[in-house]
Amino acid sequence: MMVKQLIPAAVMLASAASAWSPTDSYAPGIVECPDYLDDKDADNRVGFLRQADGISDEEHEWMLARDNVTFDNLKLFLSSVNLTDLDTDDFLDKVRKNSSARAPRIGLSFSGGGYRAMLCAAGEIAGLDNRTVGASSHGLPLLGATSYVSGLSGGSWFLSSLVFNNWTSVQDIIDQNGQDNAIWDLEHKMLDPYGINIVKDAKYWDHIKDAVDAKRDAGFNVSMTDPWGRGLSHQFFPGLDDFGESMTFTSLRDWEVFTNHSMPFPIIVSDGRTPGRKIINSNSTVFEFNPYELGSWDPYVDSFADLKYVGTPMDGGKPSGNGSCWAGLDNTGFVFGTSSTLFNQFLLQLNTTSLSGLAYSAAKSFLTDLDNDNNDIAPWTPNPFYNSPYGSSKSIKSADTLYLVDGGEDQQNIPLYPLLSDDREVDVIFAYDNSADTSQNWPSGSSLVYTYERQFFNASANFSFPYVPGVDTFLHNNLTARPTFFGCYASNLTSLMKEVNTTYVPPLVVYTANRPWTFESNTSTFKLKYDDDDKLSMIQNGFAVSTYNNLTIDEDFPKCVACAILQRSKERMGVEMGAECKKCFSDYCWDGSTYTYDDDSLPNDFTKTGRFNNTIDEPNSSEILKMSGSDAPASATADVIVSSTDDSGKIAASTLSASSVSSSSVSSIASSSHSNGAAAAFNVGTSSNWVSMVTLVMSWLALV
Ligand SMILES: *[C@@H]1O[C@H](CO)[C@@H](O)[C@H](O)[C@H]1NC(C)=O
Ligand SMILES: *[C@@H]1O[C@H](CO)[C@@H](O)[C@H](O)[C@H]1NC(C)=O
Ligand SMILES: *[C@@H]1O[C@H](CO)[C@@H](O)[C@H](O)[C@H]1NC(C)=O
Ligand SMILES: *[C@@H]1O[C@H](CO)[C@@H](O)[C@H](O)[C@H]1NC(C)=O
Ligand SMILES: *[C@@H]1O[C@H](CO)[C@@H](O)[C@H](O)[C@H]1NC(C)=O
Ligand SMILES: *[C@@H]1O[C@H](CO)[C@@H](O)[C@H](O)[C@H]1NC(C)=O
Ligand SMILES: *[C@@H]1O[C@H](CO)[C@@H](O)[C@H](O)[C@H]1NC(C)=O
Ligand SMILES: *[C@@H]1O[C@H](CO)[C@@H](O)[C@H](O)[C@H]1NC(C)=O
Ligand SMILES: *[C@@H]1O[C@H](CO)[C@@H](O)[C@H](O)[C@H]1NC(C)=O
Ligand SMILES: *[C@@H]1O[C@H](CO)[C@@H](O)[C@H](O)[C@H]1NC(C)=O
Ligand SMILES: *[C@@H]1O[C@H](CO)[C@@H](O)[C@H](O)[C@H]1NC(C)=O
Ligand SMILES: *[C@@H]1O[C@H](CO)[C@@H](O)[C@H](O)[C@H]1NC(C)=O
Q1: Residue 650 pLDDT > 80, yes or no?
Q2: Pairwise pLDDT comparison (668 vs 64), residue with the higher score
Q3: Residue 38 pLDDT exceeds 90
Q4: Whose CA is nearest to atom 13 of ligand 2?
Q5: Distance CA 572, CA 292 (A)
Q6: Ligand 3: which residue has its CA nearest to atom 11?
Q7: pLDDT band at residue 33, thresholds of 50, 70 and 90?
Q8: Would the CB of 543 count as within 6 Å of ligand 4?
Q9: Assessment of whether the complete model's pTM goes beyond 0.85
Q10: Which residue has a Cα nearest atom 12 of ligand 3?
Q11: How many CB atoms lie within 10 A of CB 458?
């Protein structure tokens, strides 16, 4: 039985540089409060909380230094692709000297999807990492030029595995495969990591149980997230004596790879959800964990807490109770466990393991004990946002516990949202989609659609996201089969930005979906074990995914990637596009066209992306979209987003609600309630040059 160690403050300070939890245990412990708590003059900050009016000072400082590193690496990458239209060294130097401009910032974003997403992402990043064998000759080695990298769920497992193994490379992980203590030994499920060696399995469960008990003994609520995070940590941190039991997420602040800015800034995404309530993209609260903070940009929360001290009982941002400060709740495994609350699989798959007899009963009774009706929720108690002066959500502010769930639960399965913050100044996002949207476990582009939709709802901060087509178009036009660029021209985004009420041009998005170049990588999200051959094949296929099949499909692909990276800088500097990049953009940019068809059944229960086939011959046609079935709210009103395309391909969008109807293309909207669901009717008028199609995105907001 592990005993919680309370270490005297002096020892704690001395060991601060060791990058471990102040308690050297899984259990949080009391620490000295930070000096800034006494700072009465702090702007936009109370105690541990600050308003989300920008990134933290710490992140700002850190990123300025990282800019110096990425700048040199970007020059290297760009010179290797030989753009003939532009002297990239000279251009970047000019950008740098121009005080009103800034150097390009690149973000990478990796979707969720269990181990499938983890392994695909590993291969995808390997294609961008010059430490991978072959990446310099048939890859896109731009990882060193990357500023941000975000992950959720399985994407957070992959990200945390690299980051908290000292920013190791996927190549290293591959090279160590099969050795003792190799990272990502997935030959057995995390439920029985030693297979039929029941004695070792039983010890493993004891070890996990001790950690969880220690946390409970320290006075903290424990939940299924705890053994889940511990179990995953055994697979991700096998080289550490305690398998990361005492390693906190904020310890990264002290790691040399982080302090010398040789890695990108990592962000992990999770959603807020109150027990018993569903979330959808229009009312979710997107939380992020970064090395400094936990919080949300969304108006519901609009604030960030110093992640290191989350665990301190807080009231209005200040330590409450006896005023003690606590640290250590942000265990790294607990953080990525929170981002990936798939853990009902623990119970469901327990009887598919080789556990038997006592080991089985012990694991089962331990897990059943932690199980509850809301077993996809990771409770963070005490809630750092309790009585927060910021944000509008009463339910979050009044709760003792902050309830977080899998970052993909609101269907935005690629964690793009944090990278849209204007303060982060990301110019291009490489979005890797390893979702299982189709019946065959391939992506359909729906996560981009959900992120696109969300910008029009009150739940979202004023972050804009480029136009994307519906899922039908993604699939029909093969946009999931090849890299596709969205938001290529800032000039086309002005009405969208106006709609969202921002002057900040959103990043260009380079979307790449999982597909079987060399291996059938569409494994189930709930597949909990991979033999070594399959694991390595998944990773190898990922390399092909991010490099457009090892650059064999289009030898100009690296040039086109360079064009995407430089586009926003060129636009800001007023530099004309050359023929080379124009050709690339005509090859890779989504051209705004959509495939039209009638469909009633699109992916989400609550959000319906419908499409009118409303041609000019049928003016004033009316359509009724209706939702029914057990999931339908008893009473509802509709919010409608209409985006229409005119014949020149220009896109306009307007958000309309039942109460404020004003658009040339929509003449009336009515909504009504039905006992078995809800319906909204639209009359779509046609002013002379608005043609073909109107994209309707409907969401039903329950009036509860
Ligand atoms: C970045 O590099 C410039 C020039 O080499 C230097 O003056 C500046 O201090 C560096 N900035 C940071 C934050 O390290
Ligand atoms: C770029 O040019 C250099 C020297 O001319 C050449 O060695 C290299 O192969 C070229 N790279 C590409 C991607 O064309
Ligand atoms: C500096 O950047 C601004 C836009 O940010 C641009 O208008 C201006 O032309 C640039 N100056 C030079 C010398 O390139
Ligand atoms: C693509 O490159 C990777 C990394 O160098 C390599 O492992 C893989 O075999 C290559 N794929 C093909 C089809 O050549
Ligand atoms: C590989 O990238 C790193 C930055 O991540 C850079 O420092 C290093 O010089 C690069 N190595 C090669 C051989 O290009
Ligand atoms: C982490 O990696 C760096 C090189 O990237 C190395 O210098 C350092 O010793 C490593 N630290 C540990 C603890 O392995
Ligand atoms: C596992 O247990 C569940 C009930 O808990 C049962 O429905 C299922 O059939 C069992 N599976 C196997 C493989 O035994
Ligand atoms: C999409 O790919 C399929 C199969 O490769 C092909 O038959 C079809 O023509 C493609 N569609 C478009 C719009 O490119
Ligand atoms: C748009 O943003 C500005 C400043 O950010 C604010 O003053 C204004 O009220 C906003 N307008 C709407 C309609 O939200
Ligand atoms: C966007 O803008 C570019 C250049 O300004 C133009 O060529 C293109 O047709 C526009 N429309 C779309 C949908 O990209
Ligand atoms: C749109 O409707 C017209 C008239 O009903 C029909 O002829 C046409 O095929 C439809 N187009 C599509 C893409 O479904
Ligand atoms: C979000 O909307 C759905 C559908 O209307 C509703 O069931 C749910 O309760 C809402 N959730 C929250 C947290 O408001």
Answers
A1: no
A2: 64
A3: no
A4: 81
A5: 30
A6: 98
A7: very high
A8: yes
A9: no
A10: 98
A11: 12
Residue of 283, 296, 701 with the most ligand 12 atoms within 8 Å of its CB, for mutation: 283
Q: What is the DSSP string of 584-643?
A: HHHHHB--S-------S--S-SSEEEEEEE--TTSTTEEEEEEEESTTS-SSEEEEEEEE
Indicate if ligand 4 lies below 6 Å from the C-beta of 518. yes
Q: What are the pLDDT digits (tens) for 204-241?
A: 989 999 999 999 999 999 998 999 999 999 999 999 99
What's 392's DSSP letter?
S
* pLDDT band per the 50, 70, 90 thresholds, residue 321: confident
Report d(CA 679, CA 683) in Å as an integer. Answer: 14
Quick check: 160 pLDDT over 70? yes
Whether residue 60 has its Cβ less than 6 Å from ligand 1: no
- At residue 374, the pLDDT reads 65
pLDDT, residue 673, reads: 34
- Single-letter code of the amino acid located at 52: A
Q: Which of 69, 78, 130, 131 is the pocket-test mutation for ligand 5 (most atoms within 8 Å of CB)?
A: 130
C-beta of 518 in contact with ligand 6 (< 6 A): no
C-alpha of residue 69 to centroid of ligand 1, in Å: 9
Indicate the residue type of 482: R
Least Cα distance to 417 among 596, 271, 550 occurs for 271
DSSP reduced 3-state for 249: helix
**For residue range 102-122, what is the model confidence (pLDDT) as tens digits?**
889 999 999 999 999 999 999
Pairing of strands 285-289, 265-272: antiparallel
Amino acid at position 107, single letter: G
The CA distance from 516 to 243, in Å, is 34
Q: Look up tokens 């990278």; give the residue.
A: 419
- Closest C-alpha to 355, from 529, 191, 527: 191
Evaluate: CB of 597 within 6 angstroms of ligand 11: yes
- Nearest residue by C-alpha to atom 9 in ligand 3: 573
